[in-house]
Design brief:
Elements lengths: L8 H26 L1 E2 L2 E2 L2 H6 L5 H39 L4 H9 L6 H19 L6 H8 L1 H13 L3 H10 L4 H12 L1 H17 L2 H5 L5 H9 L3 H27 L8
Antiparallel strand pairs: 1-2
Length: 265
């Protein structure tokens, strides 16, 4: 069999072991650190995190975690209900604007977070007077931050799907635009939409700079605050966040591979 440019199976195994080792070494080191005790190793630091007597000490973490979940939900909603329909609209109705739209969407990836915050600070003064200073308003900044990553994920699915033909066929059968978007295009773009949502979740849960400079509390800023008093707690919560991300990746990956249900004629 002609292998072409494919690497030898032994080379693939070596590359796989190296990659797994690069990820596993820091994670195992973090787990070993959280088990250290004056007498050796124990689960004392893990148990103290969930001890009701330490509830006040670790309260910023739970508040930050709740705020990050709210921000993740709002950011994903921005991606699914604002970015994705806009991409479909530009593709179907304004194809001449695709290049300028792509440049505009990918622009945030070239701007450092500190510069982005300096530009957003005056805008957030207006947002604070208009919508209040609730934590959810930070999702506007996060929506800008995740634009390049979410765009690339959705665009890959759109390039693999004949969006124009599907939309025109549905419209010729009398379907309205909401039906075209929700029942025709969304199922075909499901892998890209799921990937964009997952990337948005990962960016929001790991973001620190924007929240810190705008004086908002999320999971990462809370970990820094609590970590100054108890470094074990911040490492344990970071490990749990990694486990959550891995589980979420597996669940969403299985959902993306699930075959679509057949639509009755």
């Amino acid at each position: 069999m002609n292998r072409g440019l494919a690497p030898h199976p032994a080379v693939r195994w070596v590359i796989g072991i190296v990659v797994v080792g690069l990820f596993a070494i820091p994670i195992v080191s973090m787990a070993e650190y959280t088990l250290r005790d004056v007498d050796g190793y124990s689960l004392a630091h893990w148990a103290s995190l969930f001890d009701p007597a330490n509830a006040a000490k670790y309260r910023p973490i739970w508040i930050g975690l709740g705020n990050s979940v709210v921000l993740a939900i709002v950011t994903v909603a921005i991606v699914l209900f604002l970015l994705a329909p806009t991409m479909v609209l530009v593709t179907l109705r304004f194809p001449a604007l695709q290049r300028p739209f792509e440049f505009l969407v990918l622009l945030p990836i070239t701007i450092p977070a500190i510069v982005l915050v300096v530009g957003l600070a005056p805008i957030y003064l207006v947002i604070g007077r208009t919508f209040g200073t609730g934590i959810w308003t930070l999702a506007f900044a996060y929506g800008i931050t995740v634009l390049p990553f979410a765009y690339r994920s959705i665009q890959a699915s759109m390039e693999a799907t004949d969006v124009r033909t599907l939309a025109e066929a549905a419209r010729s059968l009398g379907a309205g635009w909401p039906t075209v978007l929700l029942r025709v295009l969304a199922p075909n773009l499901r892998p890209g939409l799921i990937a964009a949502s997952l990337i948005s979740l990962a960016v929001v849960l790991g973001e620190y700079t924007i929240a810190s400079l705008l004086n908002r509390q999320n999971l990462q800023t809370a970990l820094v605050v609590v970590g100054k008093q108890d470094p074990y707690a911040s490492v344990i919560l970071s490990l749990l966040a990694l486990v959550f991300a891995f589980v979420l990746l597996l669940v969403i990956g299985r959902a993306a591979r699930r075959p679509m249900k057949k639509v009755r004629p």
